[in-house]
Specification:
Structural class: mainly alpha
Shape: extended
Radius of gyration: 36 Å
Subcellular location: Nucleus
GO molecular function, one term: DNA binding
Distance between the termini: 111 Å
Pfam family, one: SRF-TF
Low-confidence stretches: 1-6
Strand content: 5-15%
GO cellular component, one term: nucleus
Number of helices: 5
Mean pLDDT: 81
Order of helices and strands: HHEEHHH
Number of strands: 2
Main location: nucleus
Helix content: over 70%
Strand order of the largest sheet: 1-2
Largest sheet: 2 strands, antiparallel
């Protein structure tokens, strides 16, 4: 009888332990999963330049890989351009970039790039440098006179606007003093 009772308690203890083990094992597995998974990092600038460069390279390659994958898997039109701080460019485009930009323009109404306006933009940049007095050493007398007239006209408009502003301020001050 004592033997039977002892066997019963041993069996009961095994059942309890196996139940606890299963329960604890699940908890253990969940904890292990948490430990083995990638830890979250705080998103802030990496101060160590070597670590920053390694992270940049890995993440750049990851982004380019994901872009290629979504392009192949989903037949999506994808374009990614990444500029490093060194100025080096890395890119991926599943279709010609011009086609993607045109599609973007059609859908949003905003034009990010337009080849036909590129030359006009370059000319405006040159004109702006001339107005600042830069790159005018090759100008002849006539071109310098035209530039001088343009600057004088601009200066006149600025002074007129400034005088108008001062008149309005005086008028506001007088109205406030009268009240």
């Amino acid at each position: 009888m004592l033997m039977l009772l002892l066997s019963f308690f041993l069996l009961l203890e095994r059942c309890m332990n196996s139940h606890l083990l299963r329960r604890n094992n699940t908890t253990y597995q969940e904890e292990k999963r948490k430990e083995m998974g990638r830890g979250k990092i705080e998103i802030k600038r990496i101060e160590n330049s070597s670590n920053r460069h390694v992270t940049y390279s890995k993440r750049r390659n990851g982004i380019l890989k994901k872009a290629k994958e979504i392009s192949v898997l989903c037949d999506a039109h994808v374009s990614v351009i990444i500029f490093a701080t060194s100025g080096k460019m890395h890119e991926f485009s599943s279709t010609p970039l011009v086609d993607i930009l045109d599609q973007y323009h059609k859908l949003t109404g905003r034009r990010l790039w337009d080849a036909k306006h590129e030359k006009d933009n370059d000319n405006k940049q040159i004109e702006l440098r001339h107005l600042k007095g830069e790159d005018i050493s090759s100008f002849n007398c006539r071109e310098l006179m035209i530039l001088e007239d343009a600057l004088e006209n601009g200066l006149t408009r600025i002074r007129d606007k400034q005088n108008e502003f001062f008149r309005m301020m005086r008028k506001k001050t007088q109205n406030m003093e009268q009240e």
